[in-house]
TrEMBL record:
<dbReference type="GO" id="GO:0001716">
    <property type="term" value="F:L-amino-acid oxidase activity"/>
</dbReference>
<feature type="signal peptide">
    <location>
        <begin position="1"/>
        <end position="18"/>
    </location>
</feature>
<dbReference type="InterPro" id="IPR002937">
    <property type="entry name" value="Amino_oxidase"/>
</dbReference>
<protein>
    <submittedName>
        <fullName>Predicted protein</fullName>
    </submittedName>
</protein>
<keyword id="KW-0732">Signal</keyword>
<dbReference type="Pfam" id="PF01593">
    <property type="entry name" value="Amino_oxidase"/>
</dbReference>
<dbReference type="InterPro" id="IPR036188">
    <property type="entry name" value="FAD/NAD-bd_sf"/>
</dbReference>
<dbReference type="GO" id="GO:0009063">
    <property type="term" value="P:amino acid catabolic process"/>
</dbReference>
<feature type="domain" description="Amine oxidase">
    <location>
        <begin position="81"/>
        <end position="587"/>
    </location>
</feature>
<dbReference type="InterPro" id="IPR050281">
    <property type="entry name" value="Flavin_monoamine_oxidase"/>
</dbReference>
Length: 651
């Protein structure tokens, strides 16, 4: 996100939300509203006296036909964050499990830290997840479940298990100096006041819009949608959700082109026409706000990302990263799991097929077959394999519904690339430009319309006594179409072309000589998540209509209640580690319901791993905020009964 345009308009709403101490956030509210809206119509298709639903509403956990088997463990497919978190929960509940991980060299999935020089502490960069906008102490926020994981006592007993102590500040904005901006061959800085207009006239943008500026336009267009979701929570109403439901079929581009009109006050202030935006103005806004063709994806994604990045000091967001790289998170979990159950994580096992031993029996275990022909038998399977990869497996005997198969095909992932470069020195901090001015950048980012698009400066190795600063720069961080184009130069035999392009772009953005950078170059490590066979995309990035029509189908199990899905795509918190954690919670909860877990087990689950407010009925917060969840308030239980009534006794 190039410009965090919604801070002024969201500050008041988020402050009001924090003051209410509501235990859920906008993402939970949005996800809950999706499910409750769907259930309103779906329940009418169930028999009026449906036994299982009646039992749930009376506070009882109905029996299922999918009882647990003690003969086989649960199979977890993938040792990314969803898989590892699933294992942590199962370990805590005393439920046997086994993880199959395709990668033989590492774990962590899309958490991946590349180290250029192991002999130097800060010579690395995070190829995948790199920053965590945690809630401020004592408040609830989008990343609350992740914050709990960082401080989970078994991961903080000392020695190799000291996860929380590795959290350090992440500087989303430069802590010293200021990031550079270079658009339309015009140099400026992130903090320029007044901001540069970057020759927007050459992009055929009408002057009134130029005068208003991208930030103000998007505050007026997107801000009220996000603000209305906050207001829903503060007031107990649903107007914000209903508005988002109406707009779910829209991309950001179509919303701006056909639905949005400037508010009367805003239009009067800048003499804007009270009509939707023209094509040139939309393209101009996208260039400075996001990445090329971002606006072609769901408007919902744009609104929810604005909420996630809303950094209101002292209210919600406390930017953190991990000293030693984000890999510290999965590898700390692995160290703990290895100490508890040695050999439970099997690496180098790539799954080729998932099948029921008897598709006609609800008591039949599942067989997972690897690409080498090895077979693994499990009572239940929780798959955290990314959906594009999942679709390449043989699932013909896995019992997926038509909607689930369509979801695997249609739910969209976004491309992303990063290019890390190791230099001999942190020239972005210590160097001078061609005009003799110190560059002086520490932390933060720079932005450009050149192919590299976003430059990210290291936040680690900053003000660290006894350690040398990092010489590693994320020279390019791209999404959507920008990533697709740069990805064509990664691991395709075009290494020299890629290196030359990146150095030229860096030199231009920072106003230094190309030779100055080339002489200081040590190594380049590019990565393209879209062309990786184990991911086939960087993160879930839905298109218009995906949320309302397909999202809910993957929140119920397939294969007679024994094949469960997890991963950040099966949450509303896309592209964030916490989305993977939330989805794992849902998958384990599904397993507990389907196997008719004891109340003691359920209470331990809720008490130790929290309640997912996305799956709790509206108005139930006050009586379910003490480590329990009443069955009659359990939206996930209702969801399972509605979609898989055949698996519940008395259905």
């Amino acid at each position: 996100m190039i410009l965090n345009v919604l801070l002024p308009i969201l500050a008041t709403s988020q402050a009001a939300l924090a003051a209410t101490n509501v235990p859920y956030d906008v993402f939970s509210h949005y996800g809950r509203s999706l499910i409750e809206n769907a259930h309103t119509s779906q329940k009418s298709n169930l028999p009026a006296k449906h036994v299982a639903l009646s039992q749930a509403l009376q506070g009882r956990l109905p029996n299922t036909t999918c009882n647990s088997s003690t003969d086989y463990p649960i199979g977890i497919l993938g040792a990314g964050m969803a898989g590892l978190y699933t294992a942590l929960i199962l370990d805590d509940l005393g439920i046997p499990y086994e993880i199959l991980e395709a990668d033989s060299t590492r774990i962590g999935g899309r958490i991946y830290t590349h180290q250029f020089d192991p002999s130097k502490e800060f010579e690395y960069y995070d190829v995948g997840a790199m920053r965590f906008p945690l809630p401020q102490p004592g408040t609830h926020g989008v990343m609350s479940r992740l914050e709990h994981l960082f401080h989970y006592p078994p991961l903080n007993t000392g020695g190799d298990l000291a996860l929380a102590s590795k959290l350090i500040p992440y500087y989303y904005r430069a802590v010293n100096g200021t990031g550079r901006m270079y658009f339309n061959e015009v140099h400026s800085t992130v903090n320029a006041n007044p901001p540069s207009q970057f020759d927007a006239q050459a992009m055929d943008v009408p002057q009134p819009y130029i005068n208003a500026g991208v930030s103000n336009i998007l505050n007026d267009a997107i801000g009220p949608l996000a603000e209305a979701l906050f207001n829903d929570i503060n007031t107990g109403t649903t107007a914000g959700w209903q508005r988002m439901q109406e707009l779910d079929p829209h991309s950001t581009r179509s919303y701006l082109a056909f639905n949005y009109t400037p508010s009367a006050k805003f239009a009067q202030q800048y003499q804007l026409p009270e009509t939707p935006l023209d094509v040139d103005t939309i393209n101009w806004a996208e260039t400075f706000d996001k990445s090329t063709q971002w606006y072609d994806r769901a408007l919902t994604e744009t609104v929810l990302e604005a909420v996630a990045f809303g950094d209101v000091p002292g209210v919600t967001v406390d930017w953190k990263c991990l000293r030693g790289g984000s890999r510290q998170l999965p590898y700390t979990i692995k160290a703990y799991l290895d100490s508890r159950s040695p050999g439970s994580i099997k690496q180098g096992v790539q799954v080729a097929k998932i099948a029921s031993t008897d598709p006609g029996s609800t008591s039949s275990p599942l067989i997972v077959t690897s690409t080498t022909g090895d077979a693994y038998t499990y009572s239940h399977v929780i798959s955290t394999i990314p959906l594009p990869v999942m679709r390449t497996l043989d699932l013909t005997q896995a019992g997926l519904s038509i909607m689930q198969s369509n979801a695997l095909r249609q739910l969209q992932y976004g491309p992303s690339i990063k290019i890390g470069i190791q230099f001999t020195e942190p020239w972005w901090t210590t160097g001078v430009d061609k005009d003799g001015k110190p560059i002086g950048i520490v932390g933060g980012q720079s932005f450009t319309d050149l192919p590299i698009r976003t430059v990210v400066y290291p936040s680690y190795g900053v003000n660290t006594p006894g350690s040398a600063p990092s010489n590693v720069l994320i020279a390019s961080y791209c999404w959507t179409n920008d990533a697709e184009r740069m990805g064509n130069l990664i691991n395709t035999g075009a290494d020299e072309l890629l290196k030359d392009l990146v150095l030229r772009n860096l030199a231009t953005v920072h106003n230094v000589d190309y030779k100055y950078l080339k002489d200081r170059l040590v190594a380049v490590y590019p990565w393209d998540w879209n062309h990786n066979s184990l991911t086939m995309g960087a993160f879930a990035f839905f298109g218009p209509g995906n949320y309302l029509k397909l999202y809910e189908s993957l929140s119920v199990p397939a294969s007679n209640g024994r094949l469960h899905f997890a991963g950040e795509a099966i949450s509303v918190r896309h592209a964030w580690v916490v989305g993977a954690l939330d989805s794992a919670w849902v998958a384990v909860h599904n397993y507990l319901i389907m196997t008719h877990a004891s109340q003691d087990t359920l209470n331990k689950f809720y008490n130790n791993w929290g309640i997912n407010w996305e799956w709790t009925k509206s108005g139930a917060e006050s009586k379910n905020n003490n480590g329990t969840l009443a069955h009659e308030d359990n939206l996930l239980l209702e969801h399972l009964i509605i979609h898989r009534s055949d698996l519940f006794s008395g259905a």
